[in-house]
Specification:
By secondary structure, this protein is an alpha+beta fold. Helix content is 31%, strand content 20%.
Length: 583
Amino acid sequence: MGGHNQCFIYGPTERCRFYDPDLSRAYLTALVYLFVLDYDSVFWSKDVDDFIGHVAGFALVEFVFPDDVTYPCLPVSTEERGLLFPLRGESLCTAPEIELAVAMSAKVVIKHGLVIPWMKRDVVFARSTTTPGKHRVKESLATTDESTDPLLGDRQQTYPPDPRGDEGYRLFESFASFIREMRSPYARKTLPFEFVKLLGNSLYGKTGQGFKGKRAFGVREMSGVVVGPSRVSDPAVAALVCGFIRAVIAEILWKLPKDATVVSATTDGFLVDCPIEDLDLNGTMCRRFQALVDRISPGSHMLENKHQVMQLFAGRTRLQFTVEADGEHKTVTAKGGIKPGPEIEDENAFMLDLTINRQPGQKLTYESFISMRDQLPLELDLQTETRETRINLEYDFKRRPIPDSVRMVPMAGTNESHLAFRTEPWDTVDEALMTRLIFDAWRDDHCLKTIEDFQSWEYYRAFKMATRLTAKPASPTIAAGGQRTGRKNLTRGGYLAVAKQLFLAAYQKKLWGLDGADLSQRKLAEWLTSQGYKTSVSAVKNGTREHPVENLVPATDEVVAFLDSMKSRFPGLEVERFLIRAT
């Protein structure tokens, strides 16, 4: 389903030393977490206790975290927005994540749960001797056992126990150790190091291949084909490894010091203002991961710091770059899919300048190699082509902004300041998806760069959320109770025009404290115009066609001024019925 990818703040950080700890060889190490799975012994369970411990468990759960939990750990998958981590909802997750959620005091109810026991070590070795084409256990290692396995007949044998006490067999441990030995002589970022690293990570990738219906260009078929499973594909293996890594990262976040600032988490690492030695790594998931590191790389630490800077800019998931470096330490430049182009020598400086000077709808032109789909059928040489993409440096709203944290923060080394805010988890995924849908429309003409931009966005979101129900009420009585009569769109008149429409509808129907209104339609139009709100008689008449909708407009300065003016003339006017309630 993916990694634990979230951005926890938006904008430039305060000036402070930030670190970038990564889990040591995360997915390769996590493969060692698994013993051989005994599919013949699979069982269903709704008992949470069956998912606690070193268990290959998978479940669909309903969950509720306490309101004070800052970093919930249960993932909810969405079609277009990746994984979200709300306070409550329904999650398809793994045993390590369930165990962590319970430790975080979440209420977890398992709707459907599946557990695949680990296969006993003796059975693994015995079965391997009967499988054609597989490596066979030397006869000298095995002794005949009088007991009988139904699948092995009278060939059941016993084997020396694992020197570390494992009752099962860690299928991927020898491979992980082999990869570690292969790349240990090479320096990081060199070609041989990266090649061997790719070999190691590819094994995990292969375990998850072929289960999502992805398509790729087939050279043999010269057309798109569905990518099928590999010889080592196994959804249980791929899911448990990925879930375990998500749980390790989530546990570290949960146990961060209260005053720590975590900028983002990206799959197997995170940006935080705490050095590794100040992190609490004594939780259950961290101890399990460290034990695996000790097996394949004795003496190594489960975390290694990749970068260190003094100030960062955080845009969204996988979009963080350096504003101010920290001496000679490596800087962070995660570009979020933006391609600066081969002529750009300093990509970090490019991202900084692009962020400061960006405009709504701005596009970026870049050079890219043509695809194999174009190259082979058309018999073209490998060449570049010019492409254009719309840049996106705005927040992704995987978490909810905290309005009280909104501020302008100076960006070191520049004369600029930029909007910044902290975030908290959404209550539900539906809130997040609705907000993102609304934001995608708002950012067509706006950027989040200043406090004024944020306020404009908050007004827009509140208005769109208030008009999201479109069902027309059956009677004016229902409308008077505040039910919505239809979707309102913003015109050039903005929120003020909507407020005026509501006032005219309430006036015509003698609602919201206007039962004693004494002006004719013509007199009302003339009075409104004299107050600076140009109104025609036909506009007043149109008020008879609508039912006023409660709590529909945000309290902008111009809306508040309009309502104050109306109340001065009609003292009984119930102003609170116009304004969106604060949440």
